[in-house]
Amino acid sequence: MILKPFGAVAAFSLMLFAWPIVLDGHQASSLQREQARRILDAAGVRGGLVVHLGCGDGKLTAALRADDGYLVQGLDADEANVEEARAHIRSLDLYGPVTAIRSSGKRLPYADNLVNLLVVSDSGVQLSGDEVARVLAPDGVALINDDSGITDTRHLTPETSSRLAGWSKFTKPRPDTIDQWTHYLHDASGNAVADDSLVGPPRHLQWVARPLFCRSHEMDSSVSALVSSGGRIFYILDEGLTGILDKRLPSRWFLVARDAFSGVLLWKCPLPEWGWRQWKKSDLESKDWWRLGAQRLQSPVVLPRRLVAAGDRVYATLGFRSPLSVLDAASGEELDTFDNTKGTDEILHRDDVLVLCIREIPATGFERNQGKAASETVVAIRADTGELLWRKDAEKILPLTLAVGGNRVCFHTYDALVCVDLETGKELWRAESTAAGAGRWGKWVTSNTVVALEQVILSLNPKELRAYSADTGDVLWNAPSPSGCGAATPPDLFVASGLVWSGGPAQNFSMRDPRNVLINGLEETLVSKEGRDPLTGEVKRTVTVRNLIDFGHHFRCYRSKATERYLLWPKRGVEFLDLEGTDFDRCDWLRAPCRLGIMPADGLLYVPPHQCFCYPGVLLNGFNALAPERRSKSREVEESKSGTDSRLEKGPAYQQIDNRQSATANPNDWPTYRHDVKRSGSTSTEVPGNVQVAWTTEVGGRLTAPVVACGKVFVGAVDSQTVHCFDAAGGEPLWSYTTGGRVDSPPTICTFVVPPSGGADEVDDDTAHRRRPPEGGTTNSLCLFGSADGWVYCLRASDGRLVWRFQAAPSDRQLIMYDQVTSAWPVHGSVLVEDGVAYFAAGYSSFLDGGVYVYGLDARTGEKLHEAHLEGPYPEIPDKPGWAFDMEGARPEVLLSQNGYIYMRQIKFDKRLQCQETPRITRMGDRDVGLHLFSTSGLLDDSGYNRTFWMYSARWPGYYRANEGPPKTGQLLVFDDSTTYGIKVYDKKDVRRPWNVPGDGYELFADDNDNEPVLDEKAANWDKGPGFTRAKPAKWTRNIPVRACALVQAGDKLFLAGPPDIVDVDDPLASFEGRKGGTLWTVSTSDGEKLAECDLDSPPVLDGLIAARGRLYLCTKHGSVICLQGR
Fold first, then answer.
1. Is residue 731 left, alpha or beta, with left meaning phi > 0 and alpha meaning psi from -120 to 50?
2. What does the pLDDT average to over 300-314?
3. Could you tell me which of 173, 651, 761, 1110 has the fewest CB atoms within 10 Å of its CB?
4. Could you please report the per-residue DSSP string of 396-440?
5. Over 567-618, what HEC string results?
6. Do residues 925 and 886 make contact, with C-beta atoms less than 8 angstroms apart?
């Protein structure tokens, strides 16, 4: 769906905040909408992040979300105002896209260059103009009440004729230190070099968006193209089902627009005629997909050239064989289609002229297009009208070689380099030049690169680099060419820092013997690159560095990019070769999608989602926009870290439940995520096998799993950032509490005995199940959870009153994560509580924003007891080489505890949060970590990507695969003291990937806990080898016709739930998307036999089924909480 632009411009001269004293609800909402419309009209900002400073009751704040292209946050120094604003926003069902938080106003709690529109209506704010300029994105706008007291605006451009009486409008100019990236190879010249002096080794997250992964490693990459212009980015993305691929399942391609600096989703345009059915239907429809490999490298090489952005226009083919369309960059509205351009295969834009390569048969690669009898034409048209300027029929044009430099258009045929005039199309010269194939990838790749400059045309093939005079076509010089860089990509050719840099590293750093990893890591390497004068070929500069590139594996399957200072190589992820200094860096923790790669622009490094499984527990997933180092240690972080007391806030219920002592938990409760500190998903409570729905409560939106304790059900509404509490017996709502960020997993409920000297008067519903309190005393339960706003909250479970909250984030700095405002250091909802200590982690990556902070607090008081800080470790270049298949580093996870240790995936702590050694077993990343549950992509990851898995093992798998055969491995696991039960979705293996055939069922299994996965000698140290296998057979296995996404063990029964495993011919995705309802099975733990079945209106959320007090509780994908009891 394309989002429409916000209403027409209308002038107004009323004072915005001259409010009537009394307004009824309808009048108030109408006035607020009108005021919001006028504010947005005056600002001229069309989508993005809007911040309202002085939000008051939140009515204007909510109205500022004119459509889905806006994300709005209100700030106010008064906590009462914030609560009132939240209540109003919730009443409109807008909380999430619109939020409100408390802020003093002295410093705005945002990352640099993030805010698109800042509305300052608070007359008492103490905010400097420098601070306003810091948070505004380039071309961002501030509308400031003239009574606000902000006078120093020297870094902003004022608008003297503001349409808002009593208000001033300021714009932050776009600095000349950043650059756009309007074409696949930066611009029409083919020189993939950004004139951007701010892009550098990444140290901060700016924003991140979904999806977390491309759909598949073997099939076509999910991101076809990516460009940047006018403060927006545009890309072509497949949002189809992740992990499971089948000919019957449709793709879902979109042209997507986001704000470049905040990442806010602006609009999406569907592309129904895109994907493999358009470009290789005959190749794939008749073949067995099990036997197909590396299809991601066998999509048309020109796909990234089907999208260009220029100013306020986007040019694209909205179907693979469609003519060129023109879209409004702000709204996505299709403005025009140039019918005379059908067959457009490559698009270039220069000086309001579009240069197109039109092919009767779209290009795929070298061999497939060589010698075909279809016509190919170069066409120039007016960008605004589509008026034809000239047309030149040509011989076969080598894909990706069309380039425009100055007033010349160049392209490479299969035997010549041709140059024509941009204005007339007249051929200026033709020079003999050889086209080169690309070996095994020749059908889908070309091995020639052309860069067109004002004076020189450069042409590179794998053997030779030639420079031609742009005027005459004479050869100015030539030089041997080192090999290219990215796997299955054209060779690198850049003009950066005034010099020509060609090819990749001179040495082949790919795998030698893939079974001999002893040389594939920790071996000294040396890289030397020569920069040549573009006119003479003379070597003017040589850059040499040790240990930037490592042996082992292969270069990534996307080509390099560059800035004027750095070559950005794709060996592991991104290697920064500094052309001007010694700021070298190796970012193994980054990956981009095959065929497309990264994009350096807007002062940021854009890294779209990948299809890799390397470096689990460290590698970033999703679409990440990353910023370079801004300051080594900000004053705000240091002040916040030094003042722990200021980070603990005591709520109104704090003194009422003081002097607490631990109580014995009710064994029939389910008080935390996955039941206990081990996250076992198992309980001894007995539930009848044949159940029916007892009650249903509608919450709405995306829900966490539930927890049950003290007679209550607690559920997080993820996107509305709220924890809800219901009566466990009847489902009646009891209270809710809203935070400033997502709550992505359920809270933890812990119970304390309160002596007679203090505490609440009430006694929890389940006191009879605990040891008796002292005479005159009571028991109190606390509800602890983390939030993506960077805080951990402790509420009184009986009424939701705040006991305390702790700022886990080292400073109050927010950015955008998954289309909501989020702290740079979010905290998972589920807090681990053991022996009265609450453990949790805050952060996104140990390589960004100062790293990950792990805490242990006194759960009763919020007092900090323990802390660990994980940062980096950053590569020591040139002193130390890196590892080929393994790296140190960390990403946060829901914490768990087993055998006296705290775990965060592969990271192991003792109870005082001292990091423990986890020795490497082989050279490919597997480690001895101690028995515990983990997921390679995180326990909360519901993407279903087939290269990720859960494991209950003492061995972290590292680079080895463990999806299909090994014991205690699958997509969902539960376990007790003797047995692990699990669901394997991908129980088969094709050429290189785990595989599931929809309709063939999932595998339900049981393994002894001592049945550890094994790595035999043939599999050890083998790149893409068979991975882990099993030494002993399973206790039992069963094939089930249910796409089980929730599993729980309750005594001698397993309960599993999910949609039916069917593919509807008329609606193939219906089951996957919940339109076929769900089913609940009861299964015997002894042999896996089905005991009973119950239909559900909706399948559960991931891991959303629990057992407590003889009942089942389930949260559905349709936003309901359900209780089931015996019939």
1. left
2. 96
3. 761
4. PBPTT--EEETTEEEEEBSSEEEEEETTT--EEEEEE------GG
5. EEECCCCEEEEECCCCCCEEECCCCCCCCCCCEEECCEEEECCCCCCCCCCC
6. yes
741 with 787, same domain: the answer is yes
Q: Report how far residue 462's alpha carbon sits from residue 458's, in angstroms, rounded to the nearest whole number.
A: 13
Judge contact between 889 and 872, C-beta under 8 A.
yes
Cα 1004–Cα 1107–Cα 1037 angle in degrees, nearest 5: 10
Q: Indicate if 436 and 542 belong to the same structural domain.
A: yes
Q: Are residues 618 and 672 in the same domain?
A: no
Cite the DSSP H helix spans in 230-348.
276-279, 281-284
| Pairwise CA distance, residues 422 & 352, whole Å | 11
Closest CA to 1101 of 717, 827, 768, 783: 717
Model pTM greater than 0.90?
A: yes
The Cα 480–Cα 469 span in angstroms is 19
The residues pairing with 999 across neighbouring beta strands, listed in sequence order, are none
> Could you tell me the strand order of the sheet in which 307-310 lies?
307-310, 313-317, 324-328, 334-338
Let me know the angle formed at the C-alpha of 189 by 187 and 191, rounded to the nearest 5 degrees. Answer: 80
Q: What SS3 class is residue 22?
A: coil
pLDDT value of position 370: 57
Whether the predicted pLDDT of 769 surpasses 60: no
State in Å, rounded, how far the first CA of the chain is from the last one: 45
DSSP letter at 101 equals E
Q: State the Cα–Cα distance between residues 494 and 600, nearest whole angstrom.
A: 14
Report whether 759 contacts 780 (CB < 8 A): yes
Instruction: Tell me 110's DSSP state.
Output: B
Examine the domain organization and report whether 514 and 377 are in the same domain.
yes
- 177: number of Cβ within 10 Å: 11
Range of the structural domain that residue 490 is part of: 193-628
Lowest-confidence pick of 49-53, 229-233, 369-373, 705-709: 369-373
The answer to whether position 841 is within a domain reads yes
pLDDT for the residue 24:
45
The mean per-residue pLDDT over the stretch 798-818 comes to 98
CA–CA distance, 540 with 895 (Å, rounded to integer): 54
- pLDDT for 1034 beyond 70: yes
Residue type, 704: T
CA distances from 553 to 163, 201, 458, 549 (A): 60, 23, 31, 11
The answer to whether residues 794 and 870 belong to one domain is yes
> Could you tell me if residue 652 is left (phi over 0), alpha (psi between -120 and 50 degrees) or otherwise beta?
alpha
Classified as helix, coil or strand, 936 is coil
H or E, element range at 1090: strand 1090-1096
593: nearest Cα among 616, 570, 627: 570
The answer to whether residues 890 and 1024 belong to one domain is yes
Residue found under tokens 């796997």: 487
For the range 418-425, what are the long-range contacts, defined as Cβ-Cβ under 8 Å and sequence gap of 24 or more? 418/394, 419/457, 419/468, 419/470, 419/473, 420/378, 420/392, 422/350, 422/351, 422/353, 422/355, 422/380, 423/389, 424/389, 424/390, 425/378, 425/380, 425/389, 425/390, 425/391, 425/392
**pLDDT above 90: residue 3:** no
For residue 509, the model assigns a pLDDT of 59
Domain count, the chain: 3
Query: 48-53 and 70-76 as β-strands: parallel, antiparallel, unpaired?
Result: parallel
Does the residue 641 lie in any domain? no
Question: Residues 661, 1089: contact at Cβ < 8 Å?
Answer: no
Nearest by Cα to 1101 from 793, 699, 816, 612: 699
